[in-house]
């Protein structure tokens, strides 16, 4: 086959050479004996015909030699790489995604002085030529021949063609790769396309398209982005000085950059102003006034970590990427408008609540551990070499290993050598007095920075409207710059928060909140598939004691009695499979059976299997929505802005809205009452929520449930109202990092964050009307859910203890408080796995339990693939602009 192909091309080339030789022999023969003037005219005609044939050959890409040129349709409907915008539900711009940071504007949205300066400097015959300035080309040739001074002669239309159709970098053809031919062919294409563009567009359209496509440096494409980047203003508000600076940039965006080369920029600005004087667009007197004035900049360069809702933006990024791949849309170039569900006001309150309360959690954690190792096993003993294991998973360590593949001593040297890095710290905003994220530059070795970082507690918060599934707030951790991995998606054991599904299944089986189960010693045989043997499973209450009484399900739920939860789940009227199926119907998408197992285990009643905060909070929303389950909604509408400014709706969530009746309205109502009782009934683990929401309980129903996994590794709280559900998780980056006392319980760490969040939302007069409300009674007899008071049995999180020990404020105005992290290295890697137990603190480990944003973004980028339970992210973030 290769020989046939080679033979074909050889014969073709031989024939072409022979035909070419014959043609020129004939051509020369017809001039023999002719007068000189006939030869001259014939030669000129031949040259003209040859040029025309060359232009035609280039335009039609003859024999694929010159590369494909844009079609008439592509010229009439040009595609530019426009940024996509992400908006909050209340209309606030959250971020942009782009290859080229560009936003188009119309002609009348730009100060006319900009266009005058542009034409006077770049193309003085713009309004008289037809795409190619032949006068300018001859002048450029003359300057080069006489003065040896090379200057450009490209028109604005030619530059537009070069910017819009990328003729110098795409579709170059076979000859385009031959040195010398490539530039000539590109120039010919520019001339042809510029002439075509002039046929289809008027001058106003051409100069506007040019202003929208040209590169102004600092990743600012187009006049609108440039005005915002350099002066934080809009194109119609640009001053003459600013217009001249931006036009001057076009000659060389680096050399004449006003930020990095202010003196050269000022000189170039004056050249532009003088050009305006020579063309009558600026007076000499005004020029004399301006030429010595310095340029006043207001630099506003966007960075990936600007703005709010950084973790939410990453989640939107992931969802949009999947949608775009399915629908043949480019997220970064198609100029989309993405309307999301997050409310910037609710998000602000969520972020403030997290920072405010996590500062106190961190204070308590450091008071317990100080500088001692906080990574411990089930016996409370320090895990040897734990920081070193974490260090080996960092990018910096891997770079050193690649650099010294056979020299571990060199790697070890660099891991123990101090260098400058920035560490996260809690700080106080001098203006508002609020706790905020701060950073401190220190000299520290990588291994010491790991030890320092591991002493931080982490948090996730998500708030969802139960009736719609709209995510109104999303906080993935205490600081996105330092910790990219999103704790809202982290798989951890939910502890007692899972009891909601046990009792929901019981309600579905005909039981009521006033049905009873005995709080007494319980032991059962459970088959462990991994060990292939039967094992004894003996759940215990958090305080290690039993009341020995028959207890209503309401009281057991309110006081988080473990034994009653297991008895209820294993009751023949309910059963573990019904518990599992109920949880999944209500919104839990994670598998709820241990590895290799075929059915749920009794330990599931106490939160043995990992879930993430998003699905748990959404499932609680099913109760608030009277049993109707929605998937969490992040995006409500996707619109594409067309070249003529019109908008095409590509996606509307209403067309894809699904709602399933997961549990009956009656069962949901019973669970609403039990959640509310957690706050109002004596001994309720959520009693302390009233200290935040008490003033609003007269008009709004509040409920909630705490949860704590074994060893206090995970602390949870989910707060419920009729119109807003908020879930909070608090814990270490690894399960082996945790409190060693009740200070690590959900009621002491997670609930205060939820309480502070609800308090801020209901204090906000703009939001309060939307979230005020009561659960609707279904006409059920109170005797079925409002049981007689029972003796109080303290369990899980005693209600009479303070929800969180107050911290003596060590932060003065702007003074640093607790600080530390992995610096730029982040918390990355694989944990030395702590045993993943299922019950509340003090319970025994159950049988069969197995633990578990050049395209980057200005939101930070986005991959949030969930690692194995308890492990942090790898830190491999996408390199796309946002």
In short:
One of its GO terms (cellular component) is plasma membrane. This protein is α+β, with helices and mostly antiparallel strands and 882 residues long.
For CATH, the homologous superfamily of the domain at 102-290 is named as: Biosynthetic peptidoglycan transglycosylase-like
Output the radius of gyration. 35 Å
Q: What is the terminal separation in angstroms?
A: 49 Å
Main pleated-sheet profile: 5 strands, mixed
What is the mean predicted local confidence, pLDDT?
A: 84
Describe the strand arrangement of the main beta sheet, using strand numbers: 2-1-3-13-14
CATH class of the domain at 102-290: Mainly Alpha
Count of runs of 4 or more consecutive helical residues: 27
Coarse shape = elongated
By secondary-structure content and strand pairing, the structural class works out as alpha+beta
Percent of residues in β-strands: 5-15%
CATH-defined topology of the domain at 102-290: Penicillin binding protein transpeptidase fold
| Proportion in helices | 25-40%
> Which CATH architecture of the domain at 102-290?
Orthogonal Bundle
Number of strands: 18
The quaternary organization reads as: single chain
Low-confidence stretches: 794-854, 856-882
